[in-house]
Structures are given as structure tokens and as C-alpha cells.
Amino acid sequence: MTARYHIITDFPRPAPDLVARAQNLYYCMVGGLVGPRQTMDVGIKALDRSWRVCGPALTVRPEYTDDTLMSAICGKYVKPGDVVVVDAAGNPNAAAFGASQAAGVKEAGGTGLVIDGYVLTAEVIRARENIPVFCRGTVARWQGSEKPGWINSPVICGGVIVYPGDLILGDEDGVVVVPRDSIEDVITRAEGTPARPADGKIGPREKKADPYYKRSGAEEKISKFEDMEVLSTAPPPR
Fold it and tell me: How many domains does the chain have?
């Protein structure tokens, strides 16, 4: 008999130095480089706006999206630095994760969770577990923890196909997925964009000699449109 479900216990992860290089990038810049299909649906946000997450994806796909058995067991396979990515199909009717499962991921060394679904006991997750959780929201209902599924198979989370070992980047702007085979190239290109302060403290903007519309090249681009006029007053009504 061929098994319908499976748990894959390990997978190739990106080199730690690549993950370290990605940690202090502006993740929206990475999203602009990697392509629109690699940015998760905007409904998936951090439970605490200050949270950031960066690490390789360990994927979880419950067959029944209102059941948390696969969420409970996934910590057994988490390695330090992993980000658990849960495909709960956006189900709003029952929690796909809770504080106890989040604690299990943290105990194993996981650095965060991204869940296409809802969680419960969010206050406990924030105040006690303090592991970054990105999800669609919270719900006051838990269905059970009895049913099977898959671990470390491709999943769909927030409309993005995620493979184990892809690099997950999340902050208050949203969540970006960098395919494993593209990580070094994307990070290298992103390092050429404005850098985020390593301490996260963003100071006041320095005054520039030229206005932004000049520095950005917008004025030059506008001047090339042959069918656009710049008028000092509005034209008369037609």
C-alpha cells in the first residue's frame, strides 16, 4: 500500500552566511527583486508589528485545515533558525496554531512561523512565547489535533508556492519567499539597495540638495511622454 501522507525529516537549507546577510535587508526591496508571485497575500501580518523573521522554510500541510496535529508534531523536525510555514488554506473557522505549538517550535530553535490561517491564544504568544508569528488573524475556536497531513512537501501559503528550504523574510510590510536556488543572487542584488540600520533605529532623513522628483528620475521620465503636457493653468472645459 502506498502511503497517502508523508513526513520528510530533513531537506537542504541555505548556508547560514546567506541567511545572516539577508537579516538586515529591507524585505520590501527583496520583494521587488524576486517578483510579485513571491510576495504573500497582504492579509498575512505579524501579531506584533515590531516582529521580523528570516530563515529557511519548514513546511506543514494539514489535510484538514481545522486540525492541529501536524502543527503539534512539526517541532520534532525543526532545526535552529527554521521558519515554520503552515498551509491552512486561510480557514477562518478554527485555529491552525496556538501558543503551545508555537512554544514547541521555539523550544526546537525555530525562529518564527508564517501561517495561512488563524491562531488562538495570541496574547500568550506575544507575551510569553515571544516567537514571531505571521498569520491572517485570531479566532476563539480550536477544533482538534487528530488528523494527518504532510511535512516538508511543497505548500501554498498566502498564494505563494513554498518549498522546504526557501528563504522566508517577514516584517510589518509582509512576507516574501525567495526560492532556494535564487537566494544568493537575490540577496546580492538586494545588498545594492538602501540598507536597513543593523540596530533597527531609523533616524531623520538627511536634507538633500535636489528634490526627490529629480533624484528619483521621475521628472526625466515624465518629459519623455510625447502625449503629456505640463500646463500652468487648467485647460478650458470641452
Answer: 1
